[in-house]
Specification:
Elements (H helix, E strand, L loop, with lengths): L8 H10 L8 H7 L7 H11 L6 E3 H4 L2 H5 L8 H11 L6 E3 H9 L1
Antiparallel strand pairs: 1-2
Length: 109
């Protein structure tokens, strides 16, 4: 499954363009622009599954760096500052990784 089967290509493109400059990525704004905030909890969990490269049920810091590239292969890598900010914003239990429920809560809240 690809992200474009859940989100429109135009919305993904718009969200990627909005955060092209280093340190301009804001997860909540990105989720809104790409249309993810309007999706069902089931669709949000499908997106999480695509982001979870190793399939262990969590998205770790190393996977987060390449978050934008999951949406668009030519997108930039997140900076360390963006990656750490994203992780701290979503990691409710402070275990250093984002679980599916934490990701869903961040997207849909």
């Amino acid at each position: 499954m690809s992200l474009s089967s859940i989100l429109s290509a135009d919305a993904i493109d718009s969200a990627i363009k909005d955060c092209q400059a280093p340190d301009s990525f804001c997860p909540k704004k990105f989720f809104t622009l790409c249309g993810l905030t309007k999706k069902s909890p089931a669709d949000v969990k499908k997106v999480f599954g695509i982001l979870d490269n190793d399939g262990n049920g969590f998205v770790e810091e190393e996977e987060l760096k390449f978050f934008l590239q999951k949406f668009s292969p030519g997108a930039r890598v997140l900076t360390d500052k963006e990656t750490k900010g994203f992780l701290s914003a979503a990691d409710d239990d402070s275990d250093g990784r984002i679980g599916a429920d934490e990701f869903q809560a961040m997207v849909l809240s």
